[in-house]
Design a protein that fits this description.
Order of helices and strands: EEEHEHEEEHEHEHEHEHHHHH
Number of helices: 11
Protein name: Aryl-alcohol dehydrogenase-like predicted oxidoreductase
Keywords: Oxidoreductase
GO molecular function: oxidoreductase activity
Strand order of the largest sheet: 3-4-5-8-9-10-11
CATH class of one domain: Alpha Beta
Pfam family, one: Aldo_ket_red
CATH superfamily of one domain: NADP-dependent oxidoreductase domain
Helix content: 25-40%
Length: 340
């Protein structure tokens, strides 16, 4: 599986990386247990598939994801573009944490992340969530100071609104914006992606297969009680039957095209991004090599117009918001998630 490269951002802060990255939240047990040995084996498999972009965050498993990546990268750090995040303060679990983006917190957390990752710098450092009590200009200014200090090569924002992206970019060049984007979650197309296209900012879609919903393996009747998805509206009992029926429509399109459903979901993203004029590197996460190969199968697939039209009609029929709290994501603060 030859994997092409893309460029996130422009100018001196741009990053060249693979067109598909690995999202390492799964290495911290968010979707079920995985041993360190299995995590390292999976990362090696991903690397053999020519993936050079690895994404994590300080909050994933309270640092466990970063620690595992640090072990993997010990003798091969320069082979990868490494991204991590700051800006969610540890709390009592999903929905009970708070965003924190003050300069002192950002500067403290980078050193802790670097220690866990076993490196003296990260290539891309995101503000994980915009702190409603701290101006975005202060948060981005602090991130920019870390670039000057040599601890960070480039900076990014996650789940920022179009306005917040533009304000932050005026303080220091933003290389990438990370937000949820998939066949089922499309609010970023209204303001966020046009802003990225206008400013030459790359885009990194997380949950490109809807937290596993847009796959052949998802079973609506077999979601473990401890699974993090139980906290998200799409997967709640009142919404899941409708969303599972929409999944069957996606699976039918994939079957007609002889594609894995996850591969179809990624192929849709790349075509949509091209039409909107943005460079993307999605970061799906998985705990198995077989699932990874299904995902990567969709990187360079061109979908016919009738398939695109069929898929485009589905987002408006999804039941429930993509987040447990609309204020936690860009679309909620932009008034684009009206169903909560």
């Amino acid at each position: 599986m030859t994997l092409r490269s893309i460029t996130l951002g422009t100018g001196q802060h741009q990053l060249e990386t693979s067109a598909l990255g690995y999202g390492a939240m799964s290495l911290a047990g968010a979707y079920g247990a995985i041993s360190e040995a299995d995590s390292l084996e999976l990362l090696d498999h991903v690397a053999r598939r020519e993936v050079t972009f690895l994404d994590t965050a300080n909050i994933y498993g309270d640092g466990e994801s970063e620690r595992v990546l640090g072990t993997f990268l010990k003798h091969r750090r320069e082979e990868f573009v490494l991204a991590t995040k700051v800006g969610i303060e540890k709390g009592a679990g999903v929905g009970k944490r708070r965003a924190r983006g003050d300069a002192a917190y950002i500067k403290d957390q980078i050193d802790q992340s670097l220690r866990r990752l076993g490196t003296d710098h990260v290539d891309l450092y995101y503000l994980h969530r915009v702190d409603p009590e701290t101006p975005i200009e202060e948060s981005v200014g602090a991130l920019g100071e870390l670039v000057t200090a040599g601890k960070v090569r480039a900076i990014g924002l996650s789940e920022a609104t179009g306005d917040e992206i533009a304000r932050g970019h005026a303080v220091h060049p933003i290389t990438a914006v990370q937000s949820e984007w998939s066949i089922f979650a499309r609010d970023v197309e209204a303001h966020v992606l046009p802003t990225c296209a206008r400013l030459g900012i790359g885009f990194v879609p997380y949950s490109p297969v809807g937290r596993g919903l847009l796959t052949d393996s998802f079973d609506a009747k077999a979601l473990p009680a401890e699974d993090i998805r139980q906290n998200f509206p799409w997967f709640m009992p009142e919404n899941l039957p409708q969303n599972a029926s929409l999944l069957e429509q996606v699976r039918a399109v994939a079957a007609r095209l002889d594609l894995p459903t996850a591969g179809l979901a990624l192929a849709w993203l790349y075509q949509q991004a091209s039409a909107l004029g943005v460079q993307i590197s999605p970061i799906p996460g998985t705990r198995t090599a077989a699932h990874w190969d299904e995902l990567q199968h969709g990187v360079d697939v061109a979908l016919p117009g009738e398939a695109l039209a069929e898929l485009d009609a589905l987002a408006g029929q999804v039941s429930g918001d993509r987040s447990f709290d609309p204020r936690w994501v860009s679309g909620g603060r932009e008034g684009l998630l009206p169903r909560s």
